[in-house]
Amino acid sequence: MSELKKLILTGIGAGILFLGGYSQEQKEEPKAEGFKFTTIKELKTTSVKDQYKSGTCWSFSGLSFMESEMLRMGKPEVNLSEMFVVRHCYYDKAVKDVRLHGSLNFGPGGAFSDILYVWKNYGIVPNDVYNGLTIGEKKPIHGEMDEVLKDFIDGVIKNQNKKVSPVWKTAFDGILDAYLGKLPEKFNYNGKEYTPQSFAKDYCGLNPDDYVMLSSYTHHPFYQKFAIEVPDNWLWGEVYNVPIDELEQVIDNAINTGYTVAWAADVSEKGFATSKKGVAVIPDANGSDLKGAEIAKWEKLTDTEKEAALYKLDAPGAEKTITQEMRQVAFDDYETTDDHGMHIIGIAKDQNGTLYYKVKNSWGKYNLYDGYFYASKPFVRYKTMSIMLHKDALPKALKKKLGL
Predict the structure, then answer these.
(1) Is pTM, for the whole model, over 0.70?
(2) In a 3-state reduction of DSSP, which class is residue 124?
(3) Domain boundaries in the chain?
């Protein structure tokens, strides 16, 4: 029996319709069953980090993915510097915004393509070498820095001189130095000297050209690349467009063959209940798993009562069937937005045998799963903006279609 049925048959709490002919005094509220997960496949990953008060989830999740790639290849575990990536992106984003006369979305947001861009052009360093913590805090707090950088760039673009001075980049670099620290040119790690470029190539051993991004929308042809139209895609990074069924197959194939997946998704849904429940789901708002008299009871509930039942999430329940059309409508009407970057590291099942993806977040150990949560397949099908993974994680037939 689904949670929706149980809620309808036993009552939805004080003040809401009681079903089955019993009063609140005569029947106790049933004990919540809860979600119970069993791991099917879980891949190696590094410890959970905390982006804290910074809009840098894309860097945390993207580098978590790269750290897992190193583990998959038998490389040593390393905590890579998220702020090294953030620093380079902020500077290059500023240059592009000035060239575009302020029409770029200048801010702390980014995309997985930023990780590959920095890796390829600037390299990478360990977090111990560059942690970006210069203001005496133990975790990133970027509110002031973000505002100052935005105001500075707006001032350069809108200044009354009708021309841009040759020193604005030096001044902007100085602000970044103050808030994040000077970038290292050389450093020692485990007894050897590296540059950021040599550390990326010789120590990490990952080739950014081996990684691809995929999405699934109908406003572009399938099996071709397009620049996904989200504000944080300042690089205009391209994704391969595939049908949603194949995108799901890609994620499954990756996990089952030993590859993790960087996952960008919308997390504004009420079903994204990762803090209290540790799950992300898309409940069926129509009660479509009900039968007979149960349907009539469901239909008598108010919208508020239905929502209370659906999002109580005390146990697994029916979820929507997600179609390609639903994804497209949600993207076009702004219901689905590019909110958050995360890292899919495994597959699990609940007590009913329903499959979920195990996801590593970057909010510290904030919930009952120590910073991980479980996303249902309907949630991933509906709310995925894009994914990044190694090209060898793609099914062979799809690789051929994409010319990889």
Answers:
(1) yes
(2) coil
(3) 32-282+319-402
